[in-house]
Write a structure and sequence with these properties.
mainly alpha
């Protein structure tokens, strides 16, 4: 079942804010929260993430029904990519080196910002490339 395109973009906006605060404060705990949010989105799809729930309950009723849809697989793959970067960042913040935490968090922030500001989902594009490379044509 296809999903409302506004949901993942809303989640990316919240993620952008969270990751910016992580970079400003160096909060490993806040990055752990974001890592959990990515994990829930990767495991159950963006609708199962905390930001997907917030969109569904608080935002979507106020902005009306969706007019544009997308398949759920690319955003879910993007959540997995975000999970990997946030996990590496968490390791950097918790165990060191600190530059690793900063770099991985910065990369995740850049990808989230692209989606939130411009609607360009870098992880979704990666999904399409992986599909093209791995799907065999007969």
């Amino acid at each position: 079942m296809d999903i409302d395109v506004r949901g993942p973009r809303f989640g990316a906006a919240v993620t952008t804010a969270v990751l910016a605060v992580v970079l400003i404060t160096g909060s490993g705990w806040l990055l752990a929260w974001q890592t959990l949010a990515f994990a829930l989105g990767a495991a159950g799809g963006v609708g199962r993430s905390p930001y997907g729930w917030l969109f569904r309950k608080a935002v979507r009723p106020r902005i009306g029904p969706p007019t544009e849809f997308e398949p759920p697989e690319p955003p879910r793959f993007a959540q997995t990519v975000g999970l990997l970067f946030a996990g590496v960042g968490l390791v950097g913040y918790a165990l060191g080196p600190s530059w690793l935490g900063l770099a991985a968090t910065g990369a995740a922030l850049a990808a989230a910002f692209l989606n939130a500001a411009f609607g360009y989902c870098l992880g979704c594009e990666m999904y399409l490339v992986v599909r093209r490379v791995t799907v065999r044509t007969e």
